[in-house]
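REVIEWER CHECKLIST
Item 1: Sequence provided? yes
Item 2: Single chain? yes
Item 3: Sequence as submitted:
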Amino acid sequence: MRGNFVYLSLEPVTNMVYSLGVSPADFLNGVPEVPNQLLLLNAEAGTDVTLNPHTRFQTIAGQAQVRRYLLAKHTAAVKWLDYVHADDLDFLLPSEIAELLYLGHMETHLRTPFYAKLQNEYAFLTLRDGFYKIYYRQLGNFNHVLDVSIKRHLRSMHNNRWVFARPLAISDVPHEILLQLTEGLMDGAVIAFDQLVERHRVYMIPVRAVHHPEHQATWHTQEEVYADSKEVASLRYDLTTREWALTIHDNQEFSEVADLI
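Item 4: Structure as written out by the authors:
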């Protein structure tokens, strides 16, 4: 789906983030540590891929190999869990293997996708049209991923406007603003970078609240996403002071997250 925007929807009960516009590179650059080993829920080919005899799942080992795999272009969906010790795969029960097969095939959890035997931090599912569903054992790790993604999108818009300008150094987005974006709009938020305007060296990026998150499966164009949302806030970045701010236009759309800050 084309368009310079980020869509995200949080499911706090399962620590799942459903997103569009947050790339695998954002994930790799945002998580505290790149996973060292992946258990693939989809079939792959390549020299970095090996087969675990017990589970019949393919695996990838080594941070360099994992990074190369996640940044590569894939023709099929990428679905995986990380794990710590290779020997622990041999202790997965048939019921647990069945749950992993269900997760990969149905693209949703049967039970929690975090396994004590694997000690996995993530469950990563590539969906259609650039959508991702990622489960975070520590949900706070997504905040840094979102921070990386926001700065990348803004830098891209800035570079398109000022072709010969020096690279834009962007400050980190404050924690309280990230919380408002992820947990303040529980039905989903759209950060519309392609609707950005600049006034007095301040970039103003519309933030839109999603009206019908159940329509996600029917979105195929940017126009459909925007038609199913309305502007409720403005994310602002001051190029002079390098400070972020979030101006809320519709308080009724935002839940109270002050106790989380």
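Item 5: Key structural point noted by reviewer: The longest strand covers residues 229-238.
Item 6: Recommendation: ____
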